[in-house]
Structures are given as structure tokens and as C-alpha cells.
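INTERNAL TRANSFER SHEET
From: sequence group
To: structure group
Subject: tRNA-guanine(15) transglycosylase-like domain-containing protein

Please process the attached sequence and return the structure record in the designated field. Keep the field labels unchanged so the import script can parse them.
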Amino acid sequence: IPAYSDGLMSMFYSKDDNQIAKENQEDFSDKKSLRIYNKDFDSYFHNPYILISAGSVYKKQDFRKTIHAENSIVFVDSGGYNLAHSTLDHKRYTDKIALEFSEANGDIFPILDRPTFTLGMMRKGKPVSPYKDYNECLNLSVNSAKYYYENRSRSDATILNVIQGQTVNQIESWYKEISKYEFEGWAYGGTKGNLGRILPALKFLLNSGELARESCKMFHIFGVTSNESMIYFQYLQLVFERMGIDLQITYDSTYWNRTCVYGSYMTRPRYIVGLGMESMEWTNSINYKELSKDFKLPCHCPICEDLDDAYGFFNNYKMEKGEEVIIFKKFNNMIAFHNLYLQLEYLENVRRIFSSGMKDVYEAFFPQKICDNFKLIDDYFNNIDSDKCDALLNKKFLSGYI
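Return from structure group:
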């Protein structure tokens, strides 16, 4: 699920497509809509999923309608991450506010959990987390689950309970308190997509009977940046299908748009040697005034193909303290969708390989390391109580492997 940055959400909320085109697409030919999440718009490509952060936009009225996401599939991140980093006032931003915004604007959303992963972290000599300890985070999260359970008004929304913990014992302790409130699935954060955290959590939920529950339809992983992990999640989907478990595994990522701030421009996928996307960096140290007027970006995606004037696209400046400074605003907004297009194409090609249903095809396509980990995943769920699998998983994924 593409997670849209606060900057993109602000742009879509405050500007119509004509304004967006005027500010970002003067160097483009067709100037198509960037609202790829709405199939009714003439956009460069379409993807119906969109993740927004309630913690960043909850004060904006009619948010979903204003950004034209009425017929999209909207995942609302309730704001726990913001609370954990103290970028939201934990005394003012309440379960009531989060639930009301989520129901008004989303199709899928978690409870307002209070994450534990920032406990003990310091920023400029002060604690990052506004909460004093694990128990306070747990108690507030359980209270949130209770509030959502008792006050939800939409039966058509998918609400996710949330588990926390870096070890099975921590997950079990958290689950014991919060599982009394049943929702349509589970979400898990603070892992960065590491299988050494995610597989034990899934196995715990499996052993607890949660994944066999008819109303449990989704397991969502917050904040994934690793392309390697994204491959494993697709494989995990196949594993659960073979087990006869009707569970949709999802994850979100902001990698495609946040890296543009550093000039990241994805160039091509890597399937055999390495994994993920190769990229080059367009930095502000380059003298773009020396760029050929005939230059074309090295890509045939719909966005890059529509760019008529690459010289004009890169040469944007403003004066600061008497000096000319380059501006990358157009780059950040437009190249984000180039990156997303390539990322989605990469994942679709991986899905097609898995659709073969043949181990020989997997092994011909992926590096041996990845295929070895497919076998580990199979063994991990075929041998539910295997200490050997647990030890191997820890060695591979919790010792700097990803």
C-alpha cells in the first residue's frame, strides 16, 4: 500500500489538478493527473490503494472527498507512530478523534495503539516517547481497543487490532491483554520488515487461533523499506493459501516518495544480482545549467515519457542571501510517481513469477539466497514447534542479515 507523504497529501488537499500542473508539470506534455488512486481521473497510471496519516491531517475537513479519494481504498494510519515520536500532543489527540477521522475517511485502519519502540530513546536530552514505560503503552492501547470496539459505527470498515513486541514473550504478554477485543485483523509495527520479527508474530497468532478466525481477514506490517522483505511477504501469502487460511498480508511503504528528497531516481529492478531497485542520485551539487537541451531521462515509464523539457525541469532556482539556490520541488513531486511506477512494476513481476506455482521457476528467477529463505519459511510453518527453525531464523534475520 503506497504511503503518501505529508507533502503530497497537502498538495492534493489544497490544490486542484490545474494548480498542480502549473507548479509541477510546466515541462511536461500531457500534464496528466497525479491522483493515481482515483480511476476516474486521467492519470499516468492507476493504483487504488492509498495510506494517509490521521495524525498529520485529522484537522482537515472532508479530507477524503477533497483529495478525490472517494472510490479509492484508503488505509488510515491512526497516528500511533506520531504519538510515539511526540510529533502529536498525546493529551489532545485522543481515541475519539482518531476513530471519528478514520471512519469518516478510511476503509481500513488500526486502533490507536501506543507503540513501545521509542521508549528509552532520547532527543536533545529529552525522552522521545511521551509515555513512561511499557505498561503505560499497553494499558492505553488496550483502552483504545476497548473504545474502538464499543464505539465503532461502520460495520463495512476493516479495523485492525495491533500487536507490539520484539520477542515472542513480549508479543504474548501484549496479546493476552488486548485480544479480548476482536476486530477484522491485526497490524504489527516497529519491525522495518525484518522476517526475524514478523514470522514469530505470525506463528504466534496462528498458534493462538487468530488466523483461523473467520472474521480475521488481514495482517498488516507497518513501515517496510526492504525490497527483499516485500518478496518474502508475497511468498508468505502463498504459504497461507496452501494452509487454507484466508488471510490478506499487506504492508505499507513511503520509500518511493521520501527518498526523492535526496535526489533518488530509480533506474531498473534487480532480480538476480541483488534485489530491489537500482537508483541514481540527482544531487544539488550538479551544475544543471550544463545539461544538454536534448537530454531525456533514461526511462520509458509514463511520467518520464511525458517530460518534454528535462533542462527546464532541473533548472529551477531562487535567491537566498544573494545566492542562487536550486529548487527540487518539481523533482520531488514528479519523480516520486516515477519511482512508484517502477516499484509497482517490480512487485507485479514478482507476483507473476509466483503465479507459476513452480519451484523450478522461482529458483531460475531469484538468487539462491532468496530461494533458501523460501525453504526456511516453508519449514518454519510446517514445523510449528521447531527450535531448529527458530534458531536459524534468528541467525539469518536478527544478525544483520537484512
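Handover comment: Residues 2-257 form a domain with the TIM Barrel fold (CATH 3.20.20). The first helix runs from residue 6 to 14.
Transfer complete.
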